[in-house]
Design brief:
Layout (H helix, E strand, L loop, with lengths): L6 H8 L3 H31 L7 H29 L6 H10 L3 H4 L5 H31 L3 H8 L11 H14 L6 H11 L19 H10 L4 H6 L16 H18 L13 H4 L9
Helix pairs in contact: 1-3, 2-3, 3-4, 4-6, 6-7, 7-8, 7-9, 9-10
Length: 295
């Protein structure tokens, strides 16, 4: 991520008088409101001590004059940092710097126009490249049937709000429906739904019915994800509250902890196998859940 060095900001602060610098630093941390609160607090202390109050308006006016220079300096520090890693900087950081350039304070400074335009062009170029990579990765995942991976990729476009190409979207819906069939296991439903709920097609996939066996975990998953998949929730008899908040993806560490916990329980419950129990399982049992292997 971007880490500006504050070179321009420091230069502006060092050029100020000591009393001006204190005010400027307060304003950078909390804006003009922070300066006004600090002055009012100091005035309360002065009144209690029987001393004359400070002219708050004069100090605030001074800060109003200083802030534009400081904002420009901060933006210039960010630009310097971006330019060093322009081809690899996180797109979120690049967008933030470009968005900041539209600040009215910065727009008044004509000397920044060239930098502003160069960064906008760089952002458009980077977004075009990243969008192509995203589209290629999504198509590749769909082509090989990695439906969960495809759903997760579709949910994370480089540019917010971007949707897959129509042909890829249709295939993604069809493949997802194949996974959410009555014949699929509840475990498979949970995995697919966790990815589908945050994909752009989350409200376009409506299975023909629920799985033959509905586990407590599947029911809990549908209830948690219901605001994002209301049509699927309806199949389980779950009504979505219109005011319900959209769910968030489960954190990986929570998944890992849950998996480790399940593994520990199975080890604790395991007992030495008897000779009869050690016999090979029937071939038909070995094939159970084979359809769940594709992710």
């Amino acid at each position: 991520r971007l880490r500006p060095l504050n070179v321009h900001r420091t230069a502006v602060l060092e050029a100020l008088k000591p009393e001006e610098r204190v005010l400027a630093e307060q304003a950078l941390d909390g804006g003009i409101g922070a300066v006004r609160r600090a002055v009012n607090k100091q005035n309360d202390q002065l009144v209690k001590a029987g001393k004359p109050k400070i002219n708050a308006d004069a100090l605030v006016n001074l800060v109003v004059e200083l802030l534009p220079r400081l904002r420009v300096a901060e933006w210039q520090d960010s630009v310097d940092a971006v330019e060093k890693i322009l081809d690899t900087v996180d797109l979120r950081d690049l967008r933030a710097v470009v968005a900041k350039s539209n600040d009215p304070t910065l727009l008044k400074d004509a000397s920044l126009n060239a930098k502003r335009e160069a960064l906008r062009e760089a952002l458009e170029r980077r977004q075009a490249v990243e969008m192509q990579h995203w589209s290629d990765d999504l198509r590749a995942a769909v082509d090989v049937g990695r439906i969960v991976a495809a759903l997760k990729i579709s949910a994370q476009p480089p540019k917010a709000g971007s949707r897959p190409a129509e042909e890829v979207r249709a295939r993604l819906i069809a493949l997802t429906l194949e996974q959410l069939s009555p014949e699929s296991t509840p475990e498979r439903w949970v995995i697919v739904l966790e990815a589908l709920a945050f994909a752009p097609i989350h409200n376009e996939v409506v299975p023909v019915g629920v799985p033959a066996r509905v586990s407590p975990e599947l029911t809990a998953t549908v209830q948690r994800l219901a605001p994002a998949i209301p049509r699927i929730a309806a199949l389980f008899g779950i009504t979505v509250d219109p005011k319900a908040q959209m769910p968030r993806p489960l954190r990986n560490e929570w998944r890992d902890k849950k998996a480790k916990g399940a593994g520990a329980k199975s080890k604790t419950a395991a007992k030495p196998a008897s000779p009869a129990a050690a016999a090979p399982a029937p071939a038909s049992d070995a094939s159970v859940g084979a359809a769940d292997a594709v992710v």
